[in-house]
Design a protein that fits this description.
six-stranded mixed beta sheet; D-Maltodextrin-Binding Protein, domain 2; about 15% strand; about 40% helix; 15 strands; alpha/beta; globular
Length: about 450
């Protein structure tokens, strides 16, 4: 069956423990106790800002309908759950699942409870309604740790998703047909549409600089190779000096070459990813296309409030063009999930509610995300199209760098910055990555 979407990376949120205790609707606050487990449920999430507000919107009908108080805590530190597990201290009733390396261990220790237990007789409906790649292990396998499946049981409930590898454009500038192949894309002449360059790229993201480039090259490598090869690379079973990985780097370098990219390497390296698409909407336009995930439109509207940009009218996207037709079904993305850590009546009810179409429709209506349920409708035409990309995928594949050991991830991102600045360093960079890979996976 299908591979999986990547978990939402914590690279996008600042580290540090938040102390934002928010009770959904009319809660009196305070910590949940086991004695109040039928009326109160504790939930940890990494969300803040608009994402947090959207989740509060999702929770309000639940409180109104059940009277259950949701004590919601924003926890920015992705390691806090693991710290509590290792220390044997209390855990929230519901929180995101752990990093992939901890899933099987936590299941064996009984830290996470099966989704089958949480959903009860609603479990079949959950499986039938959710994108299969988020709930189904590859054919013949009983484990898929990327989506929390161990021994055929599910330990992570999928609630939201995003799609990556999309090429965004200003509809008033690019008026041509979407290219069918990557070579067709590279052959487009931006001057024909009054633009300076073919692509805009921004790789700056503080200590996580380089991750946008890893998204770009991952989308190339997964479309040049089959899903097994790609997954083996993530797991350290394929060297970076492998000819197919080198080919991926070489293809990526075509996107960021001085001939194709706005501003040249210095601009690419110094521009924050959130500002990378700004030249799309300037006069004259600096570029025709920006490759990014479904979340990027919020930056367009934020940076150009006077333009009153509308999705589907002023900007749109086309899916990543074919690189090798044999692997056109491979799509890159990530997801949000919840796991149940304490089996209480209130926790079960909240898990059941979040798996329903009405709950996930609220997320979709608030914008900025795709739901995990296939039948959700979208007012935003961009997200309606993105849902078609997700639904039409044969394999929804994780983002490689997000699932590599931390030393490997850092070296991978750094290598992409280095080759962007100096393409002639490619062979030496790949050789260095082989060394890092050997050490990183030996100790992971």
């Amino acid at each position: 069956m299908a591979e999986v979407l990547a978990k939402l990376s914590y690279r996008a949120v600042a580290l540090g423990l938040g102390a934002l205790l928010l009770a959904a609707a009319c809660s009196s606050g305070g910590n949940t106790t086991q004695g109040a487990s039928s009326t109160d449920v504790t939930v940890w999430t990494a969300w803040g800002g608009a994402e947090l507000k959207a989740y509060q919107d999702v929770l309000k009908p639940f409180h109104d309908q059940t009277g259950i108080n949701v004590h919601l805590t924003t926890v920015r530190d992705a390691n806090q759950l693991a710290i509590n597990v290792d220390a044997g201290t209390s855990l929230p009733d519901i929180a995101p699942g752990p990093s992939v390396d901890k899933v099987k261990d936590w299941v064996s220790k009984g830290v996470m409870k099966p989704v089958e237990t949480a959903l009860g007789d609603q479990f079949t409906a959950y499986i039938n309604n959710t994108y299969p790649a988020l709930t189904t292990a590859p054919s013949g396998q009983s484990d898929d740790l990327y989506i929390g499946i161990v021994g055929g049981k599910h330990y992570e409930e999928m609630v939201k998703t995003q799609v990556k590898g999309l090429f965004w454009y200003n509809k008033k500038v690019f008026t041509g047909a979407a290219p069918k192949t990557f070579d067709d894309l590279l052959a487009i002449n931006p001057a024909q549409y009054g633009a300076q360059k073919l692509f805009c790229v921004g790789l700056e993201s503080g200590s996580a600089s380089g991750w946008p480039a890893s998204d770009q090259i991952d989308n190339i490598i997964m479309r040049q190779n089959d899903a097994t090869f790609y997954t083996n690379w993530i797991q350290g079973k394929v060297k970076f000096s492998d000819p197919q990985i080198k080919l991926g780097y070489q293809t990526y370098l075509k996107e960021v070459s001085p001939a194709n990219v706005y501003g040249g390497p210095n601009t690419v390296l110094s521009t924050n990813f959130g500002k990378a698409g700004d030249p799309l909407f300037k006069t004259p336009p600096g570029c025709l296309f920006l490759e990014q995930a479904t979340f990027i439109p919020s930056f367009f509207t934020q940076d150009f409030p006077s333009l009153n940009l509308k999705a589907g009218t002023d900007f749109d996207f086309f899916a990543h063009p074919s690189v090798n037709p044999a692997y056109d079904g491979n799509v890159n993305g990530f997801y949000d999930n919840f796991a149940m850590y304490n089996d209480t009546p209130a926790a079960r009810k909240l898990m059941q509610y979040m798996a329903t179409a009405p709950a996930q429709q609220i997320w979709a209506n608030d914008g900025g995300t795709l739901a995990a349920i296939k039948s959700i409708t979208y007012n935003d035409p961009v997200y309606a199209n993105a849902a078609k990309v997700a639904a039409g995928a044969k394999n929804l594949l994780v983002t490689a760098g997000d699932f590599m050991p931390s030393d490997m991830q850092a070296a991978f991102w750094k290598s992409l910055l280095n080759v962007t600045n100096n393409p002639g360093s490619l062979d030496s960079e790949l050789a260095r990555l082989d060394q890092v890979q050997k050490a990183a996976y030996a100790s992971s």
